[in-house]
TrEMBL record:
InterPro entries the UniProt entry points to: DUF2007 (IPR018551), N-reg_PII-like_a/b (IPR011322)
Protein name (Swiss-Prot/TrEMBL): DUF2007 domain-containing protein
Superkingdom field: Bacteria
Record field: transmembrane: none
Length: 71
């Protein structure tokens, strides 16, 4: 699994997840449980990850949509 990005923004996370799923990329959101447990301060970002073989395609899809992320 490779990390695509980290964010504390649940709306952005939902948008990116839908965008990638629509492009046929399976995604996993990590740290959701920890983020919920820590409360509303947003100190723990959630991580969006994809399979190693889907990484290049996922990055391309997000860049074409104008999204900033790290590799």
């Amino acid at each position: 699994m490779k990390e695509i990005l980290r964010t504390n923004d649940p709306v952005r996370l939902s948008w990116l997840t839908a965008l990638l799923k629509d492009a046929g990329v399976a995604v996993v959101v990590l740290d959701t449980h920890t983020s919920v447990l820590e409360g509303s301060i947003g100190a723990i970002p959630r991580r969006l990850v994809v399979a190693d073989e889907d990484h290049a395609h996922a990055v391309r899809v997000l860049r074409e949509a104008g999204e900033e992320m790290f590799e």
